[in-house]
Structure to design on (392 residues):
């Protein structure tokens, strides 16, 4: 079998000068560890803000809730989209004012709504009648936005079906909100995470416009559209830049709303933090399961339960670098736990240079989002993924 030399373009994922510094720092740490480059998050935030200067940014903190990340974004002026009272408590303990916080989860207990209201949060998302009534009862008069259903088509990590309701249902909820004494503020949607088809925003914005017009006929003036998350990070599959996303989305909004632009907010998670993370891992074992198996199994010390759950269905393809030279071979990659679900990539073939040995370091790029916060607490006794910030 003819083989090509192993090739991995590190520079596509990380600035080489920066990476040398991070590597010196990271190589002192036990593996696996997630190293988060705060300076890159700062630049990502400024880039996004620069391309949507009129928009309010509400960081979806579930993507990476490390205190240092929250503090950095808070200092840059970010607001926060929160899904649970635990996230809220964390923000409050960091001194973040409740007027910078939205309660974006449409699934909430009555006691949670009361809790958020008592803490001073005044922006709530909803998509159902029960939830709307609870908000009216336990958080009277608050700004409410209504989440419409999207398909999630084109997204590597779709958030469809579970959230949002059909525009017709939303229309009635908006009228009901007004009757219940709430302040119907606007419409939200999420086109799916790591959405690689910018056109998905076009459809969603058009639905917002339809609802703005429909409720205006009943005398209700909506003011805001929330364009969600879905902005890209730099994984194996290429995407347009965040700037190109912003330009296109603004064009869609202008086409529908003309000069009478609504307030715009967005809830980025992945696009702000993913590129800033590098998991430093180690090869635990390499095995060929029979003499005539074409592919070797390569077991890393990080897997699905240690933070790489987004490899489910091989949805997110993390860039994985083996720092050696040699001829490239195709491999099957798996994690360290005793669960056969803990296979990272079997259908999409990753490459490894021949000559890699157990004990070799492996660098997994673009792992700053949805890794540590997803890692299991104690499966097989493995602790959750350790995460540290790099401030150099
Ligand atoms: C998770 C989530 C986001 C963030 O999505 P990304 O694709 O990571 O940017 C935004 N809004 C809501 C409501 C979410 O649940």
């Amino acid at each position: 079998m003819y083989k090509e030399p192993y090739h991995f373009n590190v520079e596509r994922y990380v600035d080489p000068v920066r990476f040398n510094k991070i590597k010196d720092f990271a190589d002192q740490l036990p593996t696996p560890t997630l190293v988060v480059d705060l300076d890159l998050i700062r630049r990502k935030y400024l880039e996004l803000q620069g391309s949507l200067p009129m928009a309010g940014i509400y960081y979806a903190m579930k993507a990476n809730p490390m205190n240092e990340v929250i503090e950095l974004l808070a200092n840059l002026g970010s607001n926060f989209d929160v899904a649970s009272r635990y996230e809220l408590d964390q923000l409050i303990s960091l001194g973040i004012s409740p007027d910078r916080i939205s309660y974006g989860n449409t699934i909430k207990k009555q006691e949670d709504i009361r809790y958020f209201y008592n803490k001073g949060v005044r922006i709530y998302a909803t998509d159902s009648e029960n939830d709307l009534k609870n908000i009216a009862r336990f958080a009277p008069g608050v700004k409410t936005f209504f989440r419409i259903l999207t398909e999630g088509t084109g997204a590597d990590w779709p958030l469809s079906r579970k959230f949002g309701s059909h525009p017709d249902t939303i229309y009635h909820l908006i009228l009901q909100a007004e009757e219940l004494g709430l302040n119907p503020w606007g419409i939200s949607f999420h086109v799916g995470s790591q959405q690689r088809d910018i056109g998905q925003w076009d459809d969603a914005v058009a639905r917002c416009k339809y609802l703005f017009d429909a409720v205006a006929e009943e005398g209700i003036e909506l003011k805001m559209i929330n364009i969600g998350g879905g902005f890209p990070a730099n994984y194996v599959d290429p995407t347009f830049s965040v700037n190109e996303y912003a330009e296109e989305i603004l064009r869609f909004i202008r086409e529908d709303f003309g000069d009478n632009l609504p307030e715009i907010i967005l809830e980025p998670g992945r696009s702000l933090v993913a590129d800033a993370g590098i998991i430093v891992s180690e090869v635990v074992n390499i095995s060929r399961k029979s003499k005539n198996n074409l592919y070797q199994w390569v077991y890393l010390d990080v897997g699905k339960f240690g933070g790489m759950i987004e490899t489910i269905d091989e949805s997110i393809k993390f860039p994985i670098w083996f720092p050696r030279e040699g001829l490239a071979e195709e491999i099957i990659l798996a994690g360290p736990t005793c669960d056969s679900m803990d296979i990272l990539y079997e259908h999409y073939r990753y490459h490894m240079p021949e000559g890699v040995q157990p004990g070799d370091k492996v660098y997994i790029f673009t792992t700053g989002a949805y890794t540590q916060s997803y890692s299991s607490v104690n499966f097989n006794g493995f602790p959750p993924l350790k995460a540290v910030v790099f401030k150099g």
